[in-house]
């Protein structure tokens, strides 16, 4: 997105026509802390976004094979209007266990809804399939989720093959043997009026990560030395091995804007434009693509469309950063290992 476009969006949002690009400005959002834990032998991990004071959240699931927890309560018509953590986890369906560990930690800290007999934290999240790399028997569990939640901090978010991105990979249209190692990435933007919009995305797509029409991480040639277009292979009749849910890109848009649940849902929906711009193909039968959106309520906003446009931009950039920061593992090279 060009600077003049950002300036125009700033004007629509009522602030000065300037914007500041950072990856760490995500932590300008008060009340947000992020923790990660992983197993480098199992090649799997967990990333926890904590909102100790609660955040209004929504979710949009577009892949055909999702694995999620507590997403129904995010629907605008349902009662609960705050979440205390969004969890991104590896381990496929087994990784859902990590979210119980997050809930246990938050309860111990008396974070959640005070029911009079117990503090009940609302923990939602999604999982991706990373069992094909590392040891498939070593999966995110409640203890790993607990450690990630306990270690949450407000600075220095690590990107690449860590946390939920530890075992992530992209470009599996020609099979796992020609895939590329991926990871988790973040990107955020701060406007001069104090509004922050950021994203954290663990990229584990069946398709390729692209910039325009150029594959920057994804399906590799038969000799493994360069990238080829998985889309072209599909059009030529290829059908990559796999089963439903063996991939999945999961992430969260976070802002300090004051949102209703309906507005949070709209942000998640518009944020999927970032998935579509950066991943090709996306939202397939083999993916469970899920995107959350959460607002902490610090800043009043009047133009949700403008925030949605920015949300799509930061999601796209977070996806690019995820593959740029990834390192080789499990027999797969990272994009940085291949000569352009």
Automatic annotation (TrEMBL):
CDD domains: nylC_like. Keywords: Aminopeptidase, Hydrolase, Protease, Signal. One of its GO terms (molecular function) is aminopeptidase activity. Residues 1-19 form the signal peptide. Pfam families: Peptidase_S58. It comes from the Bacteria. The keyword Hydrolase applies. InterPro entries: ArgJ-like_dom_sf, Peptidase_S58_DmpA. Belongs to the peptidase S58 family. This is L-aminopeptidase/D-esterase. The lineage of its organism: Bacteria, Pseudomonadati, Pseudomonadota, Gammaproteobacteria, Alteromonadales.
């Amino acid at each position: 997105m060009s600077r003049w476009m950002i300036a125009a969006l700033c004007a629509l949002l009522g602030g000065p026509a300037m914007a500041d690009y950072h990856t760490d400005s995500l932590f300008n959002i008060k009340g947000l802390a992020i923790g990660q834990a992983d197993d480098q032998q199992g090649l799997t991990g967990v990333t926890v976004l904590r909102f100790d004071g609660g955040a209004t959240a929504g979710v949009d699931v577009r892949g055909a094979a999702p694995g999620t927890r507590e997403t129904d309560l995010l629907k605008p018509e349902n009662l609960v209007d705050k979440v205390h953590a969004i969890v991104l986890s590896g381990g496929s369906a087994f990784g859902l266990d990590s979210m119980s560990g997050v809930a246990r930690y938050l309860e111990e800290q008396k974070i959640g809804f005070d029911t009079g007999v117990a503090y009940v934290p609302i923990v939602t999240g999604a999982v991706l399939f990373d069992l094909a790399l590392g040891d498939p028997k070593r999966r995110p569990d409640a203890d790993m989720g607990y450690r990630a939640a306990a270690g949450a901090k407000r600075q220095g978010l690590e990107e690449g093959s860590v946390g939920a991105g530890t075992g992530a990979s992209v470009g599996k249209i020609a099979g796992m043997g020609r895939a590329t190692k991926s990871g988790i990435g973040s990107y955020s933007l701060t406007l001069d009026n104090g509004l922050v919009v950021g994203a954290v995305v663990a990229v584990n797509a069946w398709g390729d990560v692209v910039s325009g029409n150029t594959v920057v991480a994804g399906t590799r040639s038969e000799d493994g030395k360069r990238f080829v277009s998985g889309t072209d292979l599909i059009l030529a009749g290829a059908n990559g091995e796999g089963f439903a849910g063996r991939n999945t890109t999961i992430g969260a848009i976070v802002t300090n804007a004051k949102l209703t649940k309906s507005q949070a849902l709209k942000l998640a929906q518009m944020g999927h434009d970032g998935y579509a711009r950066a991943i090709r193909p996306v939202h397939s039968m083999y993916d469970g693509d899920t995107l959350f959106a959460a607002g902490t309520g610090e800043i009043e906003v009047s133009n949700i469309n403008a925030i949605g446009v920015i949300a799509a931009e930061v999601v796209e950039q977070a996806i690019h950063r995820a593959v740029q920061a990834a390192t080789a593992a499990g027999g797969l090279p990272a994009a940085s290992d291949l000569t352009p």
